[in-house]
Structure formats: structure tokens, C-alpha cells
Write a structure and sequence with these properties.
Elements: E1 3-4, E2 18-19, H1 23-28, E3 32-36, E4 39-44, H2 48-57, E5 59-63, E6 68-73, H3 77-82, E7 97-103, E8 109-117, E9 122-126, H4 131-139, E10 147-150, E11 154-160, H5 164-169, E12 183-188, E13 191-196, E14 205-211, H6 215-223, E15 228-230, H7 233-242, H8 281-290, E16 294-301, E17 312-315, E18 318-329, E19 334-342, E20 351-356, E21 359-366
Parallel strand pairs: 2-4, 5-15
Antiparallel strand pairs: 1-10, 3-4, 5-11, 6-9, 6-10, 7-8, 8-9, 11-14, 12-13, 13-14, 16-19, 16-21, 17-18, 17-20, 18-19, 20-21
Helix pairs in contact: 2-7
Amino acid sequence: MSDTYDLARSAGEKPPVLALPLDAWHRARGGRMVEFAGYHMPVQYEGILAEHLWTRAHAGLFDVSHMGQLVLRGANAAQALESLLPGAFATLKPGKQRYSLLMGDDGGILDDLIVTNRGDHFYVVVNGATKHADIAHIATRLPAGVTLEHLEHHALLALQGPDAAQALAALGLAVESLAFMEAAAFAWNGVELGVSRSGYTGEDGFEISVPASHVEALADALLAQPQVRPIGLGARDSLRLEAGLPLYGHDLSLDIDPVEADLGFAIPARRRVADAGYPGAAQLAQAFAQGPARRRVGLLIEGRMAAREGAEVLADGRTVGTVTSGGFAPSLERPIAMAFVETALAVPGTALTLSVRGKSLAATVTPLPFIPHRYVRKGAA
């Protein structure tokens, strides 16, 4: 069931903090709730370190129902998407997904998102903190004959880790047929689930769209599997940082373009031209032609102190960049960070200094991701 989005909802006063469909479920299992993206969400259960390592070794269940689930329908839906995003969607085959970016008129990033071709419509997942602005931006730019729905009565779960496929198979879901960035509909206890082999931890895993009225039963069934534990926002953030994945509002923003963010892979050659037809296309074409003045890089930090967002990056006493994400990496047992630095200094092995609360920390530029991705790709052994 879905509701057509009403533009009037994007105006007016800030709404109260909302409860996820699984709010009571999280609290009953010891979830420590915090406000995030307009919702009460669990930041942790038994502890961030334990939850992080459990997900890397087994399977972690994340509630990401705060994210926006959208449906675009119409004969020209693919063309409509290409007028908004720099990706190629006219060639996206049914059952396939593609990472893309919602662009501002000046070439900055409004949001990053995932688009799925479900055959008779496109399914789009946007970030929770930006979803209402995204919906308003998209809705006002759609041509006649293309409709936008916000699936407000659907929840979204992410099951991540090497045991995720086994746990879903135990529920009778034949998800082994999917490879990374593929999606399909599955029936479970008479309920239709939209399942994709994707996620934001760097591990193999799945995202599951389920009617909110059935999400508690599905969460219970998954948690009954011995390899599955509930995981909070804290571990979700440390997992994505180790995987070198940018977070909107931190590593991506209107002040950052896709070229300097090292997201050029999401923009095919035919869409890197000034007349490609999406917002910011001319600025992006220029960025590709000239090359970026700064780049997103990974940093390995000496010692035990973490560098957080906003920390200055220095070279020979001169400020050359800024940390956008940072923290302790449980899998590496050391602090790491992502930062934007001058392009000449973005070479792996470059020694830099971070200024953190009046202290200088030694750091070294390192390739991203910090740990290898373990996605299950088609054709892989």
C-alpha cells in the first residue's frame, strides 16, 4: 500500500520526532534510542564494537525504515530519471540496480540513492534525512504521464554479513539466485517482499522492503536464526566507514561534486557532456575535463585518538583539507578517516598531519576501501 506524496507536507513547521514501525521491538530488545533523520532509532544494543564484529563474521539486522522508498511509474519514467540523475536508466534491465546521485543546478550533490528497475516501474531508495526534500525536488520536475509515490506504509530492513543469505534461505527465500545489485520479489507467508542484494556495510547482504504491518513478524523470524543479531546505527556507521562508503551530509553535500568525491563510476561517458540534460551537467562536464582540485581519500591514523568530522588536514604546516568522516575501525583496531585533500596530496602513502583538539596526529593517505568489499558478484566463484 502506498500514498501519493503531497507537496504541502514539505512545507510548514518541523514535524515531531517519529517512531519507526519497529520502535517497541527495538526498545524491548535493549536498543538505546536516539533521534536521527526525524525518527527515534536504535544507536546500539549490546555495544558498537561487538555489533560491528558480529556483522563482519555472521549477520546483522538493521532497521533502515527511516529511508525514503519511492516508486516512479509511466512510459517515460526512465527518461524522467535521466533528466534528474546523471546515470543511465534507459538501459537498466529489469531486476537490476544502479547507484546514482540527485544533482543540484550548480553540480553539487543533493543526495545519493539506489534505483531499481522492477519491470513495470522504478523503485528508488533515498536517504532518510533528505527524503522529503528529495521527493519535492523530483515531483516538481516530472513530466506529464510519470507519477511518483512515496511508500510510507512500507518498512525497510537490511540484513548484512556473510551469513545473511543462509539466514534468508532458512525462511524459504531463494535469494542465492541474486548477485550484487540485483533485485526480485519474493513471497513469504503470503506477503510480497522486495529483496535486493545490496547494502552499505561492504559485506554481502540484502535490503528487504516489507509492508509495515508485517515487518515485526519478519524481524522476529530473522532474529530467530542463530547467526542473526540486531545492530544499531553506531555499528552501521563504523561498518560503512571501513568500507570507504560516503555518507550524505558528511562526505557528500551540495558543496561537493561527484568527481572530487571519487564517484565518477556512477556517471557513464555519454552522460559526462554539458548537454546531458540533468541539473548540473555543464558543471560536471567541466569537472571531468579539468580534473578536481581536491579528492576524497582514506587516512590511516597513528595512535589511538580518532579524528572526527571537521578536523583540519595539514601538510608542512599548511591546511590542505578537511576530515569528513572518522572513527575507530574495529576490524583494523585503529582509527581511520575519510577526508578531502588537495589532489596533489591524494596519492597513497602521502604523509599528512591532522589537528584534533589541539593535538597533532600523524596520518597516511591509503586507498579506499580500508577493508575489501565482500559483495557476491555475478560470475564470481
